[in-house]
Write a structure and sequence with these properties.
Rossmann fold
């Protein structure tokens, strides 16, 4: 779908989106994706004509996944939110949550002090005053970003190359996932290239109504990615939300030359590796790993319609038992669960997943999304890792 093709009249009012909306199931504060999306879009006259409960939409994409008519309901919702904020002011809280890259640049050089402040009860009480929940900590920052660590890494050069888009969470909060990806690709016979021109994909901006800023970032990313796509290089990311934005949402939201060619070269990390495995092109074998894990598929992965490549790949590791949670949304939805008024909703949404994990009696959980992993650890007390880390540890 291209820019300005809203397609609200394709909605047949079947309410499938409402039935599959985790927020609607958790609270009556949200009137549902059908009403605040295609139904209201038909009668919207100005940026002031907005259903107040739209703010409770978490942008999880379950409405899009379930719609039998292919209506881009979440796109209608984020566009409506962006129109609203053209004439209304954002809060400081929402600005902070929407600009993770800026916050990372400010916080990472002082990671030790920043992390202490984020977890300190006094500072949590202060942050609560601006609308951040004090019941969980914000993501901690790494003292050395992924880019800093990657620059010092000596790779084996090779003819096969991939472009890696790390995204903000891996760069500033969980760089080890990016390093694990590089190790896996080196073992697979690929050299990893990471252009420094990349900026935030824009997912948190879009979710909070900063659509114009997200579009500026999209132009920067597409300009850089299109150069590599023209050379035929695969573009890979370990973040499911980045993947969805770069491959699909840029095309839905923005009319940028090169969108389609970039989308054609985009891969989720385990999707790319699974293709190599199925084609017999992985030069390494997996060693036995005696472990039982629960795997949680992020909503933004399911929205891509590529199956669950992480499960399919992990099941080839001898001795590793993978239990697919299949329990819906974890509830955090990026920045959603960090908001004071959304915290209880996020925990209610994730309750089925937490219970499934607890009933499975495992000690480890895997998920492709960084904030999903945070939510899982918060809700269960168990360690959660990216599937790429398990794959790295299983390479013989």
């Amino acid at each position: 779908m291209k820019k300005n093709q809203h397609l609200p009249d394709e909605c047949i009012s079947c309410t499938s989106c409402v039935a599959h909306c985790p927020v609607t199931a958790a609270t009556n504060k949200f009137r549902g994706p059908k009403l605040v999306g295609p139904a209201l879009e038909r009668f919207r006259y100005s940026s002031n004509d907005i259903e107040p409960s739209l703010d409770y939409c978490s942008n999880c994409k379950n409405c899009d996944i379930s719609c039998p008519s292919g209506v881009p309901i979440s796109t209608l919702n984020v566009r409506a939110k962006a129109e609203y904020y053209k004439t209304h002011k954002h809060s400081l809280r929402d600005w902070m949550l929407a600009h993770g890259e800026t916050m990372g640049k400010l916080a990472s050089p002082f990671a030790g002090i920043t992390n202490f402040a984020l977890s300190n009860p006094i500072n949590k009480a202060i942050m609560k005053q601006i609308g951040l929940t004090d019941k969980r900590s914000l993501p901690s920052y790494a003292s050395r970003t992924f880019y800093q660590r990657f620059k010092k890494l000596k790779q084996k050069p090779g003819e096969n190359k991939v472009i890696f888009y790390p995204g903000c969470f891996i760069n500033y909060n969980d760089p080890q996932v990016g390093m694990d990806f590089v190790d896996v690709m080196q073992a697979a016979g690929y050299e990893v290239l990471v252009p420094e021109e990349f900026v935030c994909c824009g997912t948190p901006m879009v979710a909070s109504g900063y659509l114009d800023e997200a579009e500026k970032n999209a132009h920067i990313n597409i300009k850089e990615l299109a150069k590599w796509a023209d050379k035929g290089y695969p573009i890979v990311t370990c973040c499911t939300s980045c993947h969805l934005m770069l491959q699909q949402e840029y095309q839905e939201l923005f009319d940028i030359p090169g969108n389609d060619k970039v989308a054609a070269q985009m891969y989720n990390a385990t999707e790319f590796l699974l293709d190599l495995y199925n084609e017999g092109k992985l030069p390494f074998k997996f060693k036995p790993m005696k472990e039982r894990i629960v795997y949680h598929a992020p909503c933004h992965l399911r929205a891509q319609g590529i199956g669950r490549p992480s499960v399919d790949l992990l099941e080839n590791i001898p001795g590793l038992e993978v239990i697919d949670a299949d329990a819906g949304c974890c509830g955090i939805s990026g920045s959603y669960g960090f908001k004071e008024e959304k915290y209880d909703i996020s925990m209610q949404v994730g309750s089925a997943l937490f219970e499934k994990i607890k009933q499975s009696h495992v000690n480890l959980v895997a998920s492709d999304c960084g904030t999903c992993r945070m939510q899982i650890t918060h809700g269960t007390g168990l360690k959660a890792v990216h599937p790429i880390t398990l794959i790295k540890n299983a390479i013989a």
